[in-house]
User: Which sequence fits this backbone?
C-alpha cells in the first residue's frame, strides 16, 4: 500500500497542527528554544545559497529543535493546489498575487555579467555589440523554456549568442570560471562566488533594472505565532546579508 498525495500532505502537516492545538489547550506560548516545528520552504537554488547558511546558523543558536525542509523548485505559475497547501513559505521574484498568500519584500537585486578575465577581457563585453557577440551560457531552470535574460533582450530588440544552456546559476558560474563563456546572473549571487571561482563582474552594457525577491506565506498562518516568528527571522537574516 502507498500513501496518496493527499495523505502525504496530511502526514507532513498533522504534527504541526497537533502541536499548535496542544499549545492552545495547555495555554503555553510558542517558545523557539523548545519548539520542534518543521517548516517547508521553496526558493531558487541561488537564493538558497544566499539565505540558508545564515538562517540555519540562527536556528542552531536560537531554535535547535526547529527544522526546515527545502522543496524542489517549481514555478509559482505551474504549481498544483496540493503543492501550495504543502508550503509554509515561498521565496520568489514573481510579480504576482498568489491566491491564499500574503507577501512581503525581502530584498532587491539586479543582473551583472560574470566572466573569466584571462579568457574574456572586460573590454570585449564593455559595449553592447561586444556583449551580444560574446559566447554566452544561459540558465534555463525547471519549468521554463528559455533564460529570462533572452526574453528581456528580445523585448529590447537584441539577441545574444548562446553556446550552452544549464539548469542553475552555480553551474553557469562554474562553466564561466573554466571557459571563455560569459553569463548574466543575479549580482548578489555573483558577488558570493566571485572570489572562490576567480571570476570578474561587470555591469551590463544595457540597464537590466532591478527585481524583487519576496516572501510568500499562507493567509491561514497569518496569526500563527510560530510562523510569524519564522517570517521575522527570515527577514532579519536577509537584512544582515
Assistant:
Amino acid at each position: 500500500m502507498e500513501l496518496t498525495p493527499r495523505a502525504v500532505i496530511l502526514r507532513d502537516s498533522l504534527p504541526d497542527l497537533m502541536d499548535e492545538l496542544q499549545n492552545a489547550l495547555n495555554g503555553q506560548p510558542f517558545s523557539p528554544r523548545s519548539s520542534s516545528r518543521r517548516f517547508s520552504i521553496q526558493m531558487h537554488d541561488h537564493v538558497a545559497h544566499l539565505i540558508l547558511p545564515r538562517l540555519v546558523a540562527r536556528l542552531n543558536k536560537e531554535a535547535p529543535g526547529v527544522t526546515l525542509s527545502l522543496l524542489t523548485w517549481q514555478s509559482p505559475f505551474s504549481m498544483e493546489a496540493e503543492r501550495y497547501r504543502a508550503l509554509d513559505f515561498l521565496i520568489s521574484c514573481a510579480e504576482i498575487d498568489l491566491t491564499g498568500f500574503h507577501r512581503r519584500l525581502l530584498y532587491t537585486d539586479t543582473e551583472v555579467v560574470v566572466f573569466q578575465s584571462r579568457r574574456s577581457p572586460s573590454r570585449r563585453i564593455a559595449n553592447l555589440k561586444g556583449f551580444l557577440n560574446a559566447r554566452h551560457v544561459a540558465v534555463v531552470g525547471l519549468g521554463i523554456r528559455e533564460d529570462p535574460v533572452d526574453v528581456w533582450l528580445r523585448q529590447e530588440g537584441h539577441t545574444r549568442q548562446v553556446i550552452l544552456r544549464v539548469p542553475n546559476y552555480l553551474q553557469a558560474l562554474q562553466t564561466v570560471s573554466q571557459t571563455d563563456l560569459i553569463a548574466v546572473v543575479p549580482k548578489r549571487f555573483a558577488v558570493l562566488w566571485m572570489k572562490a571561482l576567480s571570476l570578474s563582474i561587470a555591469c551590463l552594457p544595457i540597464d537590466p533594472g532591478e527585481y524583487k525577491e519576496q516572501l510568500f506565506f499562507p493567509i491561514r498562518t497569518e496569526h500563527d505565532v510560530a510562523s510569524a516568528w519564522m517570517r521575522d527571522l527570515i527577514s532579519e537574516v536577509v537584512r544582515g546579508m
